[in-house]
Amino acid sequence: SAAEKGGYDYFMLKEIAEQPKAVADTLLGRIDASGSLSLDELRIPDAELREAEKVVIVACGTAFHAGLIAKYAIEHWTRIPCEVELASEFRYRDPILDARTLVVAISQSGETMDTLMALRHAREQGAKVLAICNTNGSTIPRESDAVLYTHAGPEVAVASTKAFLTQLVACYLVALYLGQVRGTKWGDEIHAVVRELARSAEKVEQVLETMEPVRALARSLADKNTVLFLGRHVGYPVALEGALKLKELAYMHAEGFAAGELKHGPIALIEEDLPVVVVVPSPRGRSVLHDKIVSNIQEIRARGARTIVIAEEGDESVAPYADHLIRIPATPTLLQPLVATVPLQVFACELATARGNEVDQPRNLAKSVTVE
Ligand code: AGP
Question: What pLDDT does 14 receive?
């Protein structure tokens, strides 16, 4: 009913709007005033976390994209090797697991059969399993050794939005906590990250306030057949997520690519007026990456692409090559997905509406996939 949707036309719109609160709720009580992580709720003893030799993340769909982003954070902040795998592929390739492997299973519903089977397989091999889950008491956390709940609240729309942002928050918390218990040197970079993470709800709010041009742009593209998404580093999984949202909701051909791969094939797809969304990393920090993606934008534009550029406020270098420029607040590189994903959600939702699709209940899809 309209009341359930809180005055919004669709649950998805309501859930997009709830993201600042979902992020804040997921952070609540987990970072103390001194910037230390307090995750006693994880029932895995610190000693075991210290001994973990490898992290393996298993998940499906949007949760898998959160896992891909987590890999960058875990490896960079903790130096523990991390693999990410589609849960549906995991157990069929005889993965190498033992008591020193920490498996992280990410699932909004906690009922996804592929993810459940992957975690059962991991536990049979003696690995410890930590669930990141949004649904209290669901099967995946019940069958795991430990759980870190995301506090997104119920997500009704089939297309995941607020659950994804909270999965990212949970992944960052786990990564930082692993670093903390293992005594990783807490340099200025990590202190800054913790501070910025604590402020991320505000930044998501800021993005939401500036989405009208994104909606207008989406409507203007309603009769297109294809949209491509490019990113690199953590922007690559963001590109994959942007493409998945568009497939699910707008039923359009959408693909995400690592921008560095363009020259290895996908650039052949570029043609006159093809919309290409590019997620630009921060010009601060890893500026080499930034410069490379700016030249990618120039390359595709020279071949006729209509460039839709998502870039940090104050990043002027991209402006001359952007047919449409979407601004996001400046954020440390690893946290950028928290803000960069939001315009892509809004974009897909609006395009779906413009194409007359059922936003909350896309064809052929179920909210949780309880079959393998
Ligand atoms: C997200 O928009 C999708 N509907 C889907 O990919 C989903 O993320 C996937 O099925 C995993 O679901 P889960 O998080 O409940 O395990």
Answer: 96
